[in-house]
Amino acid sequence: MSYESNPILDKLPKHLKQFIKPQNYEEYTAINQAVWRYVMRKNVDYLSQVAHTSYVDGLKKTGISIDHIPNMYGMNRILKEIGWAAVAVDGFIPPSAFMEFQAYNVLVIASDIRQLENIEYTPAPDIIHEGAGHAPIIANPEYAEYLRRFGEIGCKAISSAKDYELYNAVRHLSIIKEANGTPQDEIDEAEKHIEHLQQNMGEPSEMALIRNLHWWTVEYGLIGTVDNPKIYGAGLLSSIGESAWCMTDKVKKIPYSIEAARTEFDITKPQPQLFVTPDFAFLSQVLEDFANTMAVRTGGLSGIKKLIGSQALGTIELSTGLQISGEFSNVIENDGKPIYIQTTGGTALAYREKELVGHSIAHHKDGFGSPIGKLKGINIAIEDMGPRDLKAYKIYEGEQIALEFEGGITVEGTIITGTRNLMGKIILITFENCTVTHNDQVLFQPEWGLYHMAVGQHIVSAYNGPADLNSFDLITHKVTGSTIKSKKDETRAQLELLYEQIRHFREGKNTTISRNKVFQALKKYHPKDWLLSVELYELAKQDNNLEFQQEILDHLEHIKRDNPKVGHLIDDGLQLADANLVS
Questions:
Q1: Which terminus of the chain, N or C, has less C-beta within 10 A?
Q2: Which amino acid positions bind Fe cation, per UniProt (predicted)?
């Protein structure tokens, strides 16, 4: 096992464990640690005024330090007190997997950290966003339950085939944007590809809509009143630029409602508007309202059509409780109702999320088809027939019978047996020498073997994924380095060493280091680096070394003139040092 487990992680199914990777804490450099410290000091200083009260309290409860990148398996010892756990994952993971982790009370954390050049914002998931943004708020019980419930509902949302294509394109862009030295034309090409996909998505899928809800709450949510909102969204809590920007009048504040599901977002730009929920409980109310529109609760013809459009593994549940899992390829409809469904490839049948004996993907390796609905001219549905009714209508072992369904589906063959559910209702009838037709179209022939007819008057539910997780091989992910690590040259290694020396000095590990010598080496060999100079200024300020302070300030002014983009970052760092914010 590549990670330290605990009782919460032990409950994760195998297909989620495949995304977990070691954090490899020793790979964080002193520059990485300095980036974490700068962002956290800046955030805590500012967010203590504008974030929901749960944020600052949650930092303490979840074991997140301002000075050190968190060791998430150390975090786990504290998180378990509130019933949660954390794991390192491989950058972007599929949205349904991300949400399913939440359903198991597991926070997924991308263990990479943004480069110094992207200190304010990175398009790639990183530990600042995940650890410092998401983790503190889950210490609030009402919000934690919302997050868990969101995961439970969200992982059942049906995606479209285009969603999968867009996910892969966004993952690729985030990796190359965060990588050092990626040619701009490669980034431009990837961005154009995403733009083209976004403009041609068609009607948004359930996953696209619920992802919008996730974005406007979990990532970019505000709480309180429109006139006096506080921040709770992780995207805002982890962005030192947007957390300030969102509090200005330039960002429109809108009362949160289910309309947020239809509001698109662009991850590459600051958000022009944000939604404000009155409290965390209201988030759950909107989530349930949205869930009422999903196929997992509505089923029907639209549900099966969503599954066909997804071109992915999904499940329908019939009114008898029989669950059919596979890739749905076709539906025959009549009067707005499904009258025959068909899957392609390996299909499994289940009841109450447990595979039926003899109905695995090995038994239905070429797909599964079945009529849905009532028999023509008979008021009582098969599922509602008792043993006497079944015998009266010759739906009985050994009988040669032709069952004609409303809509024109006919099943003709010899009945071998029936399978019943726990309530005694018949859910499956098995035929031999069976022919299934729709008008003149043959849907099943005797030479194909036994025919298993599902019994169900209605499709009551349709959702992403299998009914029984053990029915399918879901281990398809290979863990890779989600960010492209730049090759470390001698100059970079030397800069890391200087950062490490100052870190050791500040922490009291080695107080014999000459800070002046470090500063001279920094000016000579790394004249563009600004963060270490800010850290040196902070130490000089603590020692009240006025001459050294001024020398550093003069150097930082040169950097600001040469690179105005980092001017506000330098000023913010100096302001923190002047305020003597000692963490």
A1: N
A2: 129, 134, 219
